[in-house]
Amino acid sequence: MTNNRPSDPFDTLTKITGQLEKQINDLVYQITDNKEIVRLLGRGSLTHSLLQERFSKNQELLASQLNIPTKSDLANVAKIAIQTEEKLDGLEEQLWKVTDSIDKTNQEIVSSVEASREVLKLINHLKSEFSKFEEEKAELSEYKKQYIELKEEMSSMKELLKSIISSEVNYFPEMKKQKSKQLEPAAAGNKK
């Protein structure tokens, strides 16, 4: 029996890419090993950087003339947008704190209003009690006047009664004497 395995395409691809990478690395090594090529590449990169700088300046000049934003303008706008976003976040936090403070103040105001309502109810109740007290005071002063009048009347009646009683006391002994005198002759007549 023979081993007939199907060929793996990934295995073949891996071998081919490994060989190609080795060949490219050898080529790069040979190129970079040559001093003249390295010098030429250095000059090329210097030239490229100078051309790039001139191109950027010309692009900025043209963009300013055409009123078109440049890459640096867009970078500045992005920085400003980030700063603005950070400031907005800070303002949003401050707004939340202010909102919380307002909510707390509103709760305190509501509790103060409720307390003042209770105080007003108490004041109204006290006013009604005070008016009742004033009415009772007026009624008591009227009773006091009537009491004083009654007291004066009673004292005058007392004086009158005293005078009547004293005159009666004086009158009764004389009356007894007169009756006893009247009764004596009749009693004396009965004895005879």
How do the strands and helices of this protein lay out in sequence?
Elements: H1 9-33, H2 35-66, H3 71-191
Computed over alpha carbons, the radius of gyration is: 66 Å
How can the largest sheet be summarized? none
Instruction: Output the structural class.
Output: mainly alpha
Low-confidence stretches: none
Helix content: over 70%
As a percent range, the share of strand residues is: under 5%
Describe the structure in your own words.
It is rod-shaped and about 190 Å long. The longest helix is centred in the last third of the chain and has 121 residues, at 71-191. It is mainly α and 192 residues long. The protein has three helices and no strands. It has helices at 9-33, 35-66, 71-191.
